[in-house]
Every structure is written in C-alpha cells, then in structure tokens.
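Render this sequence as a predicted structure.
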Amino acid sequence: MLDKDEIEMVERELAFLECLKKERCQPSCMFIPTINEEIREVRRAVNLSKKR
C-alpha cells in the first residue's frame, strides 16, 4: 500500500510521462500504445491503493 507522499510522487511522474509523450512522440510512434497501457496500469494501482 502506498502512503500519501508516494501516491503524490507517482501522480507527478505520470503527469510528466503524459506531457513527455505528447511533446516528444510522433503520432505514428509504435510505443504509444505500450506507454498508454503502462500509465493505465499504474493509475489503476494508485486508485486501488487510495481506496484501501
């Protein structure tokens, strides 16, 4: 289970990754689906951690 500070850190990292993806990845980049799936999985884990 993540504590409040860890959750905030993960959320900041995810926001940074989203921004980086938008700024640096071309629309045809083959890694975008993988990045999106990783982001979804981490968000799911954070949300489950918040509910506990």
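Summary. The longest helix spans residues 4-24. The chain has a mean pLDDT of 88.
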